[in-house]
């Protein structure tokens, strides 16, 4: 990443930290991608063992047929999380996960009437996944290793 895109050309309060920031730039993005993907996978792990178990819940949100959307939800969270963690098809996997999280924002904020406090975690995770929708995997991803990115 060049200095013009990461704002490192600005004067730092502690200039000696400039090298540290530059050295950890890629590592911090890898860690964020891996953690987001792993957490999404863990969150979806119980759904993938019963992929039709959320059918009633998704129909309650207006997604019909519930069995189909329950399966899509389970696969999006579980397999999409794995893809995000390793950086394979990062943008589409992150987009699908972000969409799921924005539905949960609607569910908690509007349907359940919990407002911001109920939707806060989903908003945060949706923002993290939005970063990877725009940014992609980075040079330490499977996408980069195979030389193709969506």
UniProtKB/TrEMBL annotation:
Superkingdom of source: Bacteria
GO cellular component term of the entry, any: plasma membrane
Keyword Transmembrane appears in the UniProt entry: yes
Annotated transmembrane regions: 12-42, 62-86, 93-110, 122-138
Membrane topology (UniProt): Multi-pass membrane protein
Xref: InterPro entries: DoxX (IPR032808), DoxX-like_oxidoreductase (IPR051907)
Chief localisation class: membrane
Family indicated by similarity: Belongs to the DoxX family.
The protein, known as: DoxX family protein
Organism: Mesorhizobium delmotii
